[in-house]
């Protein structure tokens, strides 16, 4: 067994990478990428919103988000319009085609859940909750590494 197989970080990396590849296969008939799909999911669930709020929800920076939205607009899935009361704010809204895709892509979550071996909504919720807890813990480590190092008794280099 390769040494990396014993690392939590590698297991997470491999699971993320393979899951994204599975989405790629499932979304290919629509010529959608995974980030485009999650943008659609967000707009279906939360409605029209600013580019800024969409970027925050998807955890994408504007350098990644803007070109992606431009491609989705060219494909006819959404529109981007500047607000008349504040032209700095760009609102993203689904087109009729973008709304239609919700039904066409409704099978995607079921396929991912089945592929992941999640037998029911409760098992999916448990996995999602555990991943959210992990995300928050890693944000805490990222934002407060000295606290985590001290709590584990790990010596750390001083500046």
From TrEMBL:
UniProt subcellular location: Cytoplasm
Domain HTH marR-type residue range list: 5-136
Any one Pfam family match given in the protein's UniProt record, by short name: Staph_reg_Sar_Rot
Keyword Cell membrane among UniProt keywords: no
SMART domains linked: HTH_MARR
Molecular function via GO: DNA binding
Matches recorded under InterPro entries: HTH_MarR-typ, MarR/SlyA-like, Transc_reg_Sar_Rot_HTH, WH-like_DNA-bd_sf, WH_DNA-bd_sf
UniProt KW NADP keyword: no
PROSITE patterns tied to this protein: HTH_MARR_2
UniProt entry keywords in alphabetical sequence: Cytoplasm, DNA-binding, Transcription, Transcription regulation
Domain of life: Bacteria
Protein name per its UniProtKB record: DNA-binding MarR family transcriptional regulator
Organism of this sequence: Microbacterium trichothecenolyticum (Aureobacterium trichothecenolyticum)
């Amino acid at each position: 067994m390769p040494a990396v197989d014993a690392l939590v970080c590698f297991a997470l990396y491999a699971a993320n990478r393979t899951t994204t590849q599975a989405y790629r296969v499932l979304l290919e008939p629509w010529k959608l990428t995974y980030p485009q799909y999650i943008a659609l999911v967000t707009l279906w669930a939360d409605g029209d919103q600013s580019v800024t709020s969409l970027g925050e929800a998807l955890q994408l920076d504007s350098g990644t988000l803007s070109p992606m939205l431009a491609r989705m607009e060219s494909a006819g899935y959404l529109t981007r319009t500047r607000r008349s009361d504040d032209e700095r704010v760009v609102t993203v809204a689904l087109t009729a085609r973008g709304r239609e895709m919700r039904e066409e892509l409704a099978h995607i979550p079921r396929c991912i859940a089945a592929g992941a071996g999640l037998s029911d909504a409760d098992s999916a919720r448990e996995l999602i909750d555990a991943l959210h807890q992990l995300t928050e813990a890693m944000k805490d480590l990222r934002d407060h590494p000295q606290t985590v190092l001290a709590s584990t008794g790990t010596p750390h280099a001083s500046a």
